[in-house]
């Protein structure tokens, strides 16, 4: 829609047209008059830069319903418009000194019903010829319930669906203020005019905590994370799994054109706007050194492309999807997706809809509630999920 003539009112205004705003708008638009306001182009920030990995089942082994909700959505949504969900297992390569621990963990997960098993190095190499593991990685944990998507196509397909259901998208339009009257949200101001609405969903990525600074404290800080693409001279698209290497700060997945994407190397940043959009030279070098240690054609690796982007981190790495008790009525927050926003979008959308409508959902609310944090300051220690090592922390 033309940003010069925004609608004057709506049932729900969504602030932010990333994957979370688009997914939430789609689920709300069937029953509400929804306006999504995006300061730039749709899905042009963290969403456009994501690797698109869907590793939500291994990330939520304490809440299996979270992983299964997301996976069911991806299976069902596959084939909608241009959207494709690529079902692909993952291998978490385990350094030799952690083999015992990894075997125990995979047994525990398998007995809890996860499709997980431990493979020794020979089994990995015969199943996936792209690997050459040597003595350093004597095995790995195979997680079957994983896959990947193209994040931009995913978000724009959600937006197309939302539009079909009646949602309006205003791009190149910033929301400047949330309007509150008598303890309740009454709308937003944008740089092209006011939109009155009793419900405002703030899905503004890492900017959410700054945007709501005067409304309610949100413990989300920006961090920078990166990806590079390698051409190994062999086609990895069919034969290669996804995976990650604890302690090495990397995850990887095949590209459908046969290349390999390697991501990770995440650090908190105090300069999210000025931060470079290129992959760091140290990261490129790290991957160049690492590739021959686990890839059969690692010595042939040729750098194709690299980039960095900024996402929002929370103290415990899980997002905040909530109507905060101390915020004005009608304010819903969906932020802090900490490297997992693409895979968590179906879950976030269902939770946002449930908060707005009051409908029941089988999804748990507690891992996403704001009041799980006693301290809501933005000054917390950043935990990198791409280290693949829960114990790994840095300032
Ligand atoms: C390099 C990289 C790799 C990643 N890999 C993965 C992965 O493999 N799997 C995965 O699940 N996740 C991954 N992520 C994380 C994922 O990209 C994010 O968690 C997800 O995109 C967050 O979506 P979002 O909608 O919250 O944020 P965003 O995509 O950042 O969208 C927020 C939007 O809000 C808009 N906005 C902000 N303020 C305002 C305002 N005042 N008015 C109007 N609009 C506003 C912004 O312009 C922006 O478009 C990766 C991220 C990066 C950077």
Short summary:
With 395 residues, this protein is an alpha+beta fold.
**In the CATH classification, which architecture of the domain at 12-50 and 151-220 and 315-372 applies?**
3-Layer(bba) Sandwich
CATH C-level class of the domain at 12-50 and 151-220 and 315-372 is: Alpha Beta
Large-scale geometry: elongated
The major sheet is characterized as:
8 strands, mixed
Strand tally, please? 20
The spatial strand order of the largest sheet comes to: 6-7-5-15-16-17-14-18
The averaged pLDDT comes out at: 94
Total helical segments: 10
Query: CATH homologous superfamily of the domain at 12-50 and 151-220 and 315-372?
Result: FAD/NAD(P)-binding domain
Q: Which stretches of 5+ consecutive residues score pLDDT under 50?
A: 390-395
The molecules bound to the chains, other than polymers, are: flavin-adenine dinucleotide
Task: Give an overview in words.
Pfam families: DAO. Residues 11-352 form the FAD dependent oxidoreductase domain. Among the domains are: 12-50 and 151-220 and 315-372, FAD/NAD(P)-binding domain (3-Layer(bba) Sandwich); 90-143, no CATH class. The protein is built from ten helices and 20 strands. It has helices spanning 19-29, 46-49, 56-59, 64-77, 99-111, 121-127, 151-164, 208-211, 281-294, 341-357, and strands spanning 12-15, 34-37, 53-54, 86-87, 90-95, 116-120, 137-143, 147-148, 168-170, 175-181, 184-190, 193-196, 199-202, 221-231, 242-245, 250-254, 260-268, 302-313, 320-322, 331-335. Strands 6-7-5-15-16-17-14-18 form an eight-stranded mixed sheet. A six-stranded mixed sheet has the order 9-2-1-13-20-19. Strand 11 (184-190) and strand 12 (193-196) form a beta hairpin. The chain has 395 residues and is α+β, with helices and mostly antiparallel strands. It is elongated. The protein is 26% helix and 27% strand. The longest helix has 17 residues, at 341-357. Mean pLDDT is 94; it is low at 390-395.
């Amino acid at each position: 829609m033309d940003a010069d003539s925004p609608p004057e009112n709506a049932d729900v205004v969504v602030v932010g047209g990333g994957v979370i705003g688009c997914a939430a708008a789609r689920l709300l638009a069937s029953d509400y008059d929804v306006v999504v306001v995006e300061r730039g182009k749709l899905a042009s920030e963290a969403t456009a830069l994501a690797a698109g990995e869907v590793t939500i089942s291994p990330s939520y082994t304490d809440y299996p319903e979270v992983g299964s909700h997301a996976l069911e959505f991806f299976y069902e949504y596959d084939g909608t418009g241009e959207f494709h969900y690529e079902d692909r297992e993952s291998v978490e390569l385990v350094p030799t000194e952690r083999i015992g621990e990894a075997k125990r963990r995979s047994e525990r997960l398998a007995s809890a019903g996860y499709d997980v098993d431990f493979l020794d190095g020979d089994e990995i190499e015969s199943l996936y010829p792209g690997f050459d593991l040597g003595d350093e990685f004597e095995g790995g944990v195979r997680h079957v319930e994983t896959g990947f998507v193209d994040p931009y196509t995913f978000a724009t397909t959600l937006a197309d669906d939302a539009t079909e259901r009646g949602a309006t998208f205003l791009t190149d339009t910033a929301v400047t203020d949330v309007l509150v009257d008598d303890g309740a949200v009454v709308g937003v101001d944008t740089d092209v005019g006011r939109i009155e609405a009793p419900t405002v969903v703030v899905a503004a990525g890492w900017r959410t905590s700054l945007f709501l600074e005067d409304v309610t404290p949100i413990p989300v800080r920006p961090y920078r994370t990166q990806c590079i693409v390698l051409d190994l001279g062999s086609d990895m698209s069919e034969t290669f799994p996804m995976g990650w290497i604890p302690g090495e700060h990397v995850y990887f997945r095949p590209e459908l054109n046969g290349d390999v994407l390697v991501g990770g190397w995440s650090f908190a940043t105090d300069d999210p706007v000025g931060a470079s959009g290129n992959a760091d030279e140290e990261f490129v070098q790290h991957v160049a050194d690492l590739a021959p240690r686990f890839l059969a054609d690692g010595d042939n690796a040729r750098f194709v492309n690299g980039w960095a982007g900024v996402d929002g981190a929370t103290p415990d790495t899980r997002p905040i999807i909530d109507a905060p008790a101390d915020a004005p009525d009608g304010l819903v927050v969906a932020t802090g997706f900490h490297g997992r926003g693409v895979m968590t979008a179906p879950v976030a959308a269902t939770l946002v809809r449930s908060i707005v409508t009051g409908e029941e959902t089988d999804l748990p609310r507690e891992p996403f509630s704001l009041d799980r944090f006693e301290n809501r300051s933005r000054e917390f220690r950043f935990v990198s999920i791409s280290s693949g090592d829960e114990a790994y922390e840095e300032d």
